[in-house]
């Protein structure tokens, strides 16, 4: 018997092509109005004796065949070796409109090589956004530079803490030299603005607040009553003997008495300060609030008054004039030492100079009530008074501590 052996070999024309350089998708960028060139090269297995051998490169855009007159192709082919054919197609595209961009594919034998033709990323939006951001930052910086004091005042008055229930009777202690110029500035400019416009309570003192020696007990007591300390550091203030000899020691004493004292200097006089005084003030500037009174500081909306308001305690706003003192009203504190004009602390003369009759006046004044009406007692003849004091009722007398002659706070201290 005969044996028939059939050998089946794969046709060269059915093998997949190899695109050059690697066949990976390529991204290209071009502008509208320019010409883009797409170069597609493929190495095909080829057999010249086969009639039906596909060697033509076909171009498509987004899956559709190209039919645009703005597209031009140039096809070439070479045979680098036996059984191989190198085909090349150069596509030239005139980008006249945005629709010309897209995905271009070069296909042969059902295998494609893709080209992403896209317009370059536009930086117009980013540039506009950057310009708008810079303008907003500039406007914000300008507004803050002009209105930062108003913003700080609004925040402090809206969300700041009240310095209440601390036992202080005054908001500020003002020290100045008792001469004509400084006295007029304090009494006709500084005091009316703080007391009438902002309802602050001030304690004025024309004595030295920066002593060259240890501070006196009176000074410490006055300072303990005040929440802030204001020093009018005028030229006359600096011309005092103790200040001329040892300003640094006095400044250190000042910082011991108050955490952050407020120093007010006059514009014309501050220029005549000695260099060592300016140097000491600059060294301790982080511990001081230094304000300068200028020629344009008279108006209530000036920078001077805003900076001074920031350095002062938060202002308490009352709904009525008879709302009372915040020490006793807002904090519900009934301590007698914190009440300015209590009736039960009035100092009167002794109602019984001959001695205690066993009667005690109430410490807190109670509401007066009408005494009961009693029937009339029969009238009897007056008995003669004994010439000597009767000591038989001494055991029933009240020998407790007297309270009607204590006076903790006087009007002079207010």
UniProtKB/TrEMBL annotation:
Q: Which family does it belong to?
A: Belongs to the interleukin-1 receptor family.
- Tell me the Gene Ontology biological-process terms attached to this UniProt entry: signal transduction
Which residue ranges does the record assign to the Ig-like domain? 17-118
Matching entries from SMART domains are given as: TIR
Taxonomic path: Eukaryota, Metazoa, Chordata, Craniata, Vertebrata
Q: By its UniProt entry, which InterPro entries does this protein fall under?
A: Ig-like_dom, Ig-like_dom_sf, Ig-like_fold, IL-1_rcpt_fam, TIR_dom, Toll_tir_struct_dom_sf
Q: Which organism is it from?
A: Mola mola (Ocean sunfish)
Q: Which keywords, in A-to-Z order, does the entry hold?
A: Disulfide bond, Glycoprotein, Immunoglobulin domain, Membrane, Transmembrane, Transmembrane helix
The residues covered by the TIR domain are 168-312
| Transmembrane domains' residue ranges | 125-144
The name this protein carries in UniProt is Uncharacterized protein
């Amino acid at each position: 018997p005969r044996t028939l052996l059939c050998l089946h070999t794969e046709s060269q024309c059915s093998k997949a092509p190899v695109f050059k350089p690697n066949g990976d998708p390529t991204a290209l960028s071009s502008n509208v109005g320019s010409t883009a060139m797409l170069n597609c090269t493929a190495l095909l297995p080829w057999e010249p004796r086969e009639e039906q051998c596909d060697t033509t490169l076909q171009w498509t855009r987004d899956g559709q065949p190209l039919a645009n007159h703005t597209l031009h192709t140039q096809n070439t082919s070479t045979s680098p070796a036996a059984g191989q054919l190198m085909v090349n197609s150069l596509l030239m595209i005139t980008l006249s409109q945005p629709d010309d961009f897209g995905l271009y594919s070069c296909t042969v034998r059902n295998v494609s090589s893709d080209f992403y033709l896209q317009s370059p990323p536009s930086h117009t939006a980013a540039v506009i956004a950057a310009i708008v951001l810079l303008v907003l930052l500039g406007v914000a910086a300008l507004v803050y530079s002009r209105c930062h004091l108003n913003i700080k005042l609004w925040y402090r008055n809206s969300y700041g803490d009240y310095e209440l229930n601390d036992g202080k009777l005054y908001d500020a202690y003002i020290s100045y030299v008792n001469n004509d110029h400084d006295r007029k500035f304090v009494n006709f400019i500084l005091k009316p603005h703080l007391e009438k416009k902002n309802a602050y309570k001030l304690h004025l003192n024309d004595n030295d607040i920066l002593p060259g020696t240890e501070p006196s007990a009176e000074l410490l007591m006055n300072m303990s009553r005040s929440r802030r300390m204001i020093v009018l550091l005028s030229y006359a203030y600096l011309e005092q003997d103790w200040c001329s000899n040892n300003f640094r020691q006095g400044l250190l004493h000042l910082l011991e008495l108050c955490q952050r004292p407020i120093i007010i200097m006059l514009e014309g006089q501050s220029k005549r300060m000695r260099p060592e005084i300016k140097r000491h003030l600059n060294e301790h500037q982080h511990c001081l609030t230094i304000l300068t009174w200028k020629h344009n500081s008279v108006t209530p909306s000036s920078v001077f008054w805003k900076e001074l308001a920031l350095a002062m305690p938060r202002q308490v706003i009352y709904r009525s004039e008879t709302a009372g003192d915040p020490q006793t009203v807002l904090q519900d504190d009934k301590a007698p030492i914190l009440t300015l004009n209590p009736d039960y602390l009035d100092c009167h003369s002794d109602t019984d100079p001959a001695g205690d009759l066993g009667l005690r006046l109430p410490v807190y004044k109670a509401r007066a009530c009408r005494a009961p009406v009693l029937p009339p007692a029969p009238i009897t003849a007056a008995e003669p008074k004994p010439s000597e004091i009767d000591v038989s009722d001494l055991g029933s007398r009240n020998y407790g501590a007297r309270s009607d002659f204590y006076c903790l706070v006087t009007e002079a201290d207010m």
